[in-house]
UniProtKB/TrEMBL annotation:
Pfam families recorded: MotA_ExbB
Chief location of this protein within or outside the cell: membrane
Residue ranges of the TM segments: 18-40, 132-159, 179-200
Superkingdom: Bacteria
Organism of this sequence: Pseudazoarcus pumilus
Protein name (Swiss-Prot/TrEMBL): Biopolymer transport protein ExbB
Length: 255
């Protein structure tokens, strides 16, 4: 009982040197940053659940202005609203500058709207991926930071045992067990970050896939005045057709 009372987190912190305290402080900062980012992303995912209904509500609107109003009301500041407004802005710009006797009259409307939608998707992708790099870095480095603390703690414990001349099981097990706490702390920080990174990365892929489909429908609507039929091939399907170089099939592809 005396051994259990003399060793633990409090004893480890009291007898640890500057290196161990810096390692512990680093892991605490990593944990706080990780849970902060996880909380922000969870709140965003909860808001994003309404986006599917918002897109369908947009297409059921009687006019373009009404559709944009519905998007702003049901999915404010979402990638879908940004994409629709970017498409509208590109279409209006093209309409104002395509007089037959001007240089703008030679613009390819298909390519111009494609590039506008592609730009909006690129910006939305950057926003969706914000913070994921930090989570990935924490998940991959926290175990090694904790392991470094363990190695350093064991080294210090062995030096202390050697100096005291006492090498009994009780004298060795206590300090070494304390040092192993740092490895457990590192895993405690890393595991939630890795799980959150994988979950958010999958959610981003699904959202970008939906955004890609919405962009394809918008492109068809601005170019032809009609949304694609529900049975039409997706952007990725059209992209894989051999020999197809149509700009309409590469809304989110490379320029």
């Amino acid at each position: 009982m005396a051994v259990e009372e003399s060793f633990g987190l409090a004893h480890l912190w009291a007898q640890s040197d500057l290196v161990i305290k810096l390692v512990a402080f680093t892991l605490v900062v990593m944990s706080v940053a990780s849970w902060y980012l996880i909380s922000l992303r969870v709140l965003r995912q909860l808001r994003a659940r309404r986006q599917d209904d918002a897109v369908e509500s947009f297409w059921r609107a009687a006019s373009l202005d009404e559709g944009l109003t519905r998007l702003s009301r049901t999915a404010p500041a979402s990638p879908f609203e940004a994409l629709a407004r970017q498409g509208v802005a590109a279409s209006e710009h093209l309409r104002r500058h395509t007089a037959a006797d001007t240089l703008g009259g030679t613009l390819d409307a298909d390519e111009f709207i494609t590039r506008a939608l592609r730009k909006s998707i690129a910006l939305s992708t950057a926003k969706l991926e914000s913070g994921l790099t930090v989570l990935a870095s924490i998940g991959s480095t926290a175990p090694f930071v904790g392991l470094f603390g363990t190695v350093w703690g064991i080294y210090g414990a062995l030096i202390g045992i050697s100096a005291s001349g006492t090498a009994t099981l009780d004298a060795v097990a206590g300090p070494v067990g304390e040092a192993l706490i740092m490895t457990a702390f590192g895993l405690f920080v890393a595991i939630p970050a890795v799980l959150a990174y994988n979950a958010f990365n999958r959610a981003n892929r699904l959202e970008l896939s939906e955004l890609d489909a919405f962009a394809h429908d918008l492109h068809a609507w601005f170019c032809t005045g009609s949304r694609l039929a529900s049975g039409a091939p997706s952007v990725r399907d059209v992209r894989n057709i051999p020999g197809d170089q149509n700009a309409e099939a590469s809304i989110t592809g490379a320029a």
